[in-house]
Amino acid sequence: MTRFVEWLAADLYRRGTRFAFGVPGGGVSLDLLDAVQTNGMRSVITAREDAAAIMAGVAGRLADAPGLAFSTKGPGLASATNGLASALLDRMPTLMAAESFDTDELKFLSHQVFDQAALGESLFGPVAGGKSKVLQPEAFAVSTALDAMMQAPIGPALLLADPELMTANIDAPPVADTHRALPDLEALERAATVLSNARRPVVIAGLEATYDDVAKAVRALADALGAPALVTYMAKGVIADDSPNFAGIFTGGAIEQPTVAAADLIVTIGLDPVELIRKPWPYDGPVLDLTAHIHDPHYFTPAARVVGDLAAILTGLTGAVGASDWTAPEIAACRQSFLDGMDMPAVDGLSAAVVVKEAVAAFAGKPRLAVDAGAHMFSACAFWEASHPLDVLISNGLASMGFALPAAVAAALHDPARGAVAMTGDGGLLMCLGELKTAAEMDAKLTVIVFNDSRLSLIDIKREQRQMTDLGLAWRTPDFATVAEGFGFKTWRAETGEEMRAAANAAAAAGGPCMIDARVDPSGYLPQLRALRG
Prior knowledge:
It is a single chain. The protein folds into 3 domains: 2-170, Rossmann fold (3-Layer(aba) Sandwich), CATH 3.40.50; 185-338, TPP-binding domain (Rossmann fold); 343-533, Thiamin diphosphate (ThDP)-binding fold, Pyr/PP domains (Rossmann fold). 52% of the residues are buried. By secondary structure, the chain is an alpha/beta fold.
């Protein structure tokens, strides 16, 4: 017999969890912290609970294990909701352990009290796709939920940590034998026929392909076909940027349409509809959908579909196909067309594209990159060079501002030697500024590059497109370097390309928490957005 809280910590460690992120209350979350540390995990006290949920999800995704976050009841869980929504739509395995109210507190619904189970159910339902999402401290149910959260579609669960149940003695459940579902052989044969009959297929890899074995199989298929391969933002690195098959990023927008429209078959691999912008599917050509999970509804109705272990599906198909009619110069032209469209026109000051390119040259792709939502993300995702899955971390399901800094902290803690770079707009950084404290306290090998243009640029672009008057979307330029210095960061300011180059080189050599306050000119964002989305 063992206490539930001790079993939970030990079981998470067995699964590969190494960190717990959050802001504790004075109750059972302290028991959880004690059990976590006793079982060899590292606790990270964050500034906010939403950031803790993001950190837990990113740490879990990188470790291929459940990520653990914790909060107090009432305002603590309420603060975590954006992070849980990110885990839901960005497909991250976050287990949020929130203290629960006792029976007497629930009778009165008074000070700090609200129905926390209803909040969890409103976010993602008590059951989604057969997976329990709102849990009580019961070992068999929690064990089943932890198994399920690691299967596609990956997602969060909320554990309402009742003090009596968390510290009660339990019988530990047996370890489940989990595995990826094997594909249906008839469906695989139909897919092989469809693919073999295509002469100009195009491959599109999505977030379900961001596992090393799946990415290796995607690359083998693209090589066998000699066909252009695109990746979504979240699948950046599944096809390496320096691959002769790489043809750019697929968003469902305009910039990739010449390449995809030239195909006689669109092969989607692990493409989750949360990754695409909310526009109708623009292509008439047939789709072969290879997926770990059927997403219903989707943006298209496939001509053929295979569901199951993507690595097994791709290995089976690769041996059954020959080279396509695409030529290497054609694919290179597709790739160059994408890069040219994403580049920015000359501006009076420092452009976002120059900031990214100088960072790429200085860091040479060594750290992981975490990218925030905002206009800067277009340059960041286009020009940051990725070689492997999850080299770039981005919230593209929820597309939440305030994602990059917590995600980069988690990445730097997961792989201290490699470290991380966070690229964030000023608006996004303002939403999670307190996590500079977390990075400093953990002495994370992290460089924050803030694209400081004193406005909500992406929203301001949309205002301009609608020919509306000034709506107060700009503000006085914050001095983020001074703020970061107060937390113990090494800092630089950059207003020109030369200053950005010097700052990036210095930060790359420094290690530890660093910040580059890049004062960028936002005037190049509008033509870039037009090229991307039409």
